[in-house]
Structure formats: structure tokens, C-alpha cells
Amino acid sequence: MSETVLILGATSAIARATAVAFAARGDALYLASRDLDELQRFATDVRLRYGIEVRYGKFDAEATETHEAFLQSVIEEMPNLSGVVLAFGYLGDQQAARDFKVGAKVIAANFTGAVSILSYCANYFEPLQRGFIIGIASVAGDRGRQSNYVYGAAKGALSLYLQGLRNRLSVSGVRVITIKPGFVDTAMTYGLPRLFLVASPQDIGERIAATLGKSADVVYLPWFWRYIMLIIKHIPEPIFKRMKL
After folding, report:
1. Which letter, b or e, does each residue of 26-61 get, where b requires 16 or more Cβ atoms within 10 Å of its Cβ?
2. In this structure, what CATH number is given to the domain that contains residue 53?
């Protein structure tokens, strides 16, 4: 049975790959991001290649006052909406740790905006007793590291939020899946030092779409990051605080 999927942050590399993976299954798509011109190009390409229904609209994660009306417009256009993939995010830079103005943007883009739109999505699916929410967090949220702890804190908070949402919605038959990618070859990570085991967006996107056919609630991508982060989380604090991670 085909799905109707809303992709939030649809112009990012991971979101594009995820959208293509759903399209290849025959699922209808609603693509949303801030860049309408790029959305139009991408929507046209996917529609022509896969012969599916593709609609698109402007969405700004940080403009939380617009989120309720945005979701309502999506539902009016695609009343059979069956799932949401939250794929937006902002890495920021080292200034985020020292300049709160920069850090606040990282928090708003990765956590506050996510909580806002997912609250409306949850309230829509819950009474219907169906649907799914896939939230893309990060392995960076598993332990605070000096290189990106503001971003990691925001993604860690998102993971905790998704966990609570999953607990709330499970009795309603709504699935909530947390995706924790490791390093992925995207514009956001280009040029960063000390990257290793870098995955392709295409592989991550295909695996995200495939999670609907599996029972896992929290998925590390690629799979080995679960064990890498398990080791990192268990390094004693006296040792960890001296490490350059």
C-alpha cells in the first residue's frame, strides 16, 4: 500500500535521497523547505522520473508561528497524509559554543522548530490512530563533545523529545522513529576535519525509507554507529574530557 509522505527540509542532501527512496516505492510526496525555486525543480524531476503525485510548499523551521497553518494547507492538498519525515537541521560552527546568537540559531533550527511542527503533526495523527513520524537526529546527540556540543545538545534534545512522543503515540498506533546518522557526505559536513566512515546520502535515504518495514524505534545509520557511540558513551569522564573529539 502506497503512502503519502511530507518531507520537511526537502532540499537537503539526505532529504532528497529519502524523498527519492519513497518515490521509488510509488509513494506520493509533499516537499517542503524555504527554497521554493529549488523545490519546484526537484518536485518536477521526481514527478517525471517516478510518475507519482508530488506537491511542494514553503516551510521555515524557525518561523514557528506559521507551522499550524502550514500543516493545515498540506492536509487540504493531500488529505490522505500518512507520514512525516523531519529532515531539516543546521550544524553551525565553532562560534555556536561562544556566541549565543549563533548558538540560538542552531537550537532553533534543530530543536525548537522540530518540536513546533511535530506537535501539530502528532495532534493530527493521534485521533486518526494511524501514521508515522520519522525524525532525523544525530549521533552527535549521544554525548557532548567539544567540537560540536551546541549542535549535539540540540540533536540530543530532539532524540529525547522523539522518545517521549513515541511513548505518547504508541497506544494510538502512530509510529515514531528516531534516525541517528553518523557522518554523511553533504554540504553541511564538507570540509570538516577528522571525518571518518562517511556514508553517502543515497544509502542513508534508502535506509530511512526502509525503516517502515522494520520494528526498530531508534536506528543508527550506518548500523555500526550504534557500537561506536556505545563505546564513546562509556569512556570515563576523567579520560573523556582530555580527548579531542
Report:
1. ebbbbbbbeeeeebeebbeebbeebebebbbbebbb
2. 3.40.50.720
Interior angle at CA 220, CA 196 and CA 170, nearest 5: 160
Name beta bridge partners: 8: 32, 86
Cβ pair 221, 208 in contact under 8 A = yes
Looking at residues 26-38, what average pLDDT do you find?
A: 97
The total of structural domains in the chain comes to: 1
Please compute, for residue 168, the number of CA atoms within 13 A of its CA located in the half-sphere on the CB side. Answer: 15
Angle of the 36-50 helix axis to the 13-24 helix axis, nearest 10: 30
156 vs 106: CA distance, rounded Å: 13
Give the single-character DSSP code of 243: S
Distance CA 141, CA 171 (A): 27
Give the range of the structural domain holding residue 209, as residue numbers without chain letter: 4-240
| Residue spans of beta strands (DSSP E) within the chain | 4-8, 28-33, 54-58, 83-86, 132-136, 175-181, 218-221
* Residue 104, C-beta contacts closer than 8 angstroms, at least 6 positions apart: none
**What SS3 class is residue 175?**
strand
**Over the stretch 182-235, which tens digit does the pLDDT of each residue have?**
988 765 554 445 555 678 999 999 999 999 999 999 999 999 999 999 999 999
Q: Is 98 exposed, middle or buried (0-12, 13-18, 19+ CB in 10 A)?
A: exposed
pTM for this prediction: 0.92
